[in-house]
Amino acid sequence: xxxxxxxxxxxxxxxxxxxxxxxxxxxxxxGMQSAADAAALGAQVSHDQEDTSxxxxxxxxxxxxxxxxxxxxxxxxxxxxxxxxxxxxxxxxIQATITQSVHSNFMGWLNSGVETVTATAVSLMTxxxxxxxxxxxxSPTYPLSLTSTSSLGYTSGSTMGCPVYVNRGxxxxxxxxxxxxxxxxxxxxxxSSLSGTAYHQPRYNATAQSDPLVYxxxxxxxxxxxxxxxxxxxxxxxxxxxxxxYTNHTWASGGTYVLNPxxxxxxxxxxxxxxxxxxGLYIITGGGTWSGSHVSGTGVTLYFTKxxxxxxxxxxxxxxxxxxxxxxxxSGGSIPTILIMNDPAWTQTAVQDFxxxxxxxxSGDGIIYLVGTGxxxxxxxxxxxxxxxxxxxxxxxxxxxxxPLSNFTTVPTGEPFTPMGGxxx
Length: 425
Known about the structure:
single chain
């Protein structure tokens, strides 16, 4: 009886010790997982904001959660292009791994008193160029096409930090460059033509994504624009009536004009003029032509639709310097971050209904959001200080250098593409 009691006591003590050790390991892992999540997400947000210190920021977020690299046996590793796991080889994925050697109390006789605990998290960067190619019957063979010494995401030796998403296929001719942190193509490599320079190499057969800015009013089901019961996306303005006297109004060539927000029906064309747009929402029907002019405005949203006797129309800008920036807040009916947008019910007139040609340039932050049609930049340039993003059906660059940016820190509403990024593992 006595030997059995002693043996039972020893077994009971060992089981209690094992339970305590397991509890310590689980508690350590739970804290470590939170720190790894914070590190991956913090690095991703910093990377999205074009912050070159994103690696350091990720490690700092782990330290804020009590896991500091090199302290108490802790190792924190933050890197893009994970070497293993579901997102291995993806340059738009940031992986944070934390390990720590934890001393055990009762399991030492099995492993010298040390257990290694590991936690891993992965966060996806948010693209700032979406070429949806949704209208296969009217989109070009290659929804994204770079020709005649064009470049996307490459200027003076620097590369773009935010990824590119392309549906169906891309074309980069032998004189052009596509340098993006990651280029994800929905479709096989055989559906693309890549004879120019690409870095990193595009990843084909990527998972299809829906339009990240499409508005979803109801959240009964989850979608790209409806996350955790919250609706995302851009609510399109509605046409009511034309603003008097801007119906079929003709602006004299060579004039100087100051315009206020309103609805301009078939009256948004200027030639050799200087035009200032006061901040707010401009609803435009019938399209417009800017030629040889200079147009400026801060906090401006240009919304193209139909109504007032005018149908959808092309917007053509030729040899026109522009200094236009999108609103940061919803003032005057304008849409934060949106510089140019068309009606979601758009009926396509040309493959690219929005054309900027012959040295037309724009300097200013903003998103170009074109549903059902594309944008052409030919011998033109768009630049920005903080963010320059595109969500379009198709994009054609001809002799144009374009470097999108994704730093939305100046906008109180934040990154409008946010539901497309974040923790995934």
